[in-house]
Write a structure and sequence with these properties.
It is built from twelve helices and twelve strands. By secondary structure, it is an alpha/beta fold. The strands form three sheets. The chain has a seven-stranded parallel β-sheet with strand order 3-2-1-4-5-6-10, with helices on both faces. A three-stranded mixed β-sheet has the order 7-9-11. The longest helix has 20 residues. The two termini are 35 Å apart. The model has no long low-confidence stretch (mean pLDDT 94). Bound molecules: nicotinamide-adenine-dinucleotide (NAD).
Amino acid sequence: MTKLFITGGAGFIGSAFVRLLLNERPDVELINFDALTYAGNLDNLADLESKRHHFVRGDIVVREDVLANLPQDCDAIINFAAESHVDRSIASAGEFLRTNIIGTQVLLDAARERNVRRFVQVSTDEVMGSLPEDDLSYFTEDSPFAPNSPYAASKAAAEHFVRAAHHTFGVDTVITRCGNNYGPRQFPEKFLPLTISNAMHNDTIPIYGDGLNVRDWIYVDDHCRGILAALEKGKSGSVYNLGARNERKNLEVVHSLLDTLGKPRTLLNFVKDRPGHDRRYAIDPSLAETELDWRPLESWESGLAKTIDWYQQNPTWIERTRSGAYQDYYKNQYGVEVRTT
Ligand SMILES: NC(=O)c1ccc[n+]([C@@H]2O[C@H](COP(=O)([O-])OP(=O)(O)OC[C@H]3O[C@@H](n4cnc5c(N)ncnc54)[C@H](O)[C@@H]3O)[C@@H](O)[C@H]2O)c1
């Protein structure tokens, strides 16, 4: 059996990765270690009945908890756990430093202490800042760091510690960076599920600034396949950009969603721009394509259709995550308190 320690596996991308592993890697057994913050959701794992999946509630910043749950013969740690919402980092950065930076270092130390064979850090294109609006430049693995938000700064700092663990202590590390993920089970504070759930409720949809910021969208399962390829085939000490060559302006995304949902564009509400809002992200995934033999499988149209369909088929998931009743439901259903940060 391959033994994996996955952090943040009750969140949006982590839960998709756990699902992918259980479906496609019968020899994998995993500890899913998650603090269950407001973004962690055991409903995301409710359909997984595999005996190879062991959920543990725990905080990556707490060394004793990590060591107590890390298997002795662990093959890899894959670190998804993070505070992940840029707007929250602008309001208050403390939790971002705590989880994203200190938590990553705690995991790296644990990997070293226990001789874990590989450490995968799930990072973001945002560490490289913003690209000019109207040229054909792309982020490569060699693009300089230029994080513009507290969130991006915390993820960039985490990457530095991963790099340092590799160079100083010889930890076998791989870093993946991707753009904006979309798909089922994304907490509806993020742009795409917020738009879908507000449209479904006929609520107005906030659009920052002129709505012309560009993001490079990737379907969550494609991203997870890329992380799996990096885990299995990546070169030690490497960074891989995972992108689907799918740049879209925010307004274009919202128009597609509203048209598919049959909702009017009058729901759009242009609001004051986010401070320091990055204008454009675009990823060159050539290295991952060549070295990992990885390609996204989903087109924008098919991924968007699957995403919208999932939210339409799961209205109670949206209701719970949107409403204050979420915390009560959660306590009754799972007997745990959700952390509000
Ligand atoms: N969502 C995106 O578009 C995107 C893009 C690029 C990179 N990423 C990165 O991918 C990873 C996963 O993102 P996501 O969108 O699934 O995030 P998410 O917010 O949906 O999930 C984060 C998970 O981490 C858990 N967590 C938070 N603090 C923790 C702690 N101290 N200890 C243990 N668990 C903790 C939460 O409970 C939650 O389950 C993050 O590292 C993020 O930076 C996300």
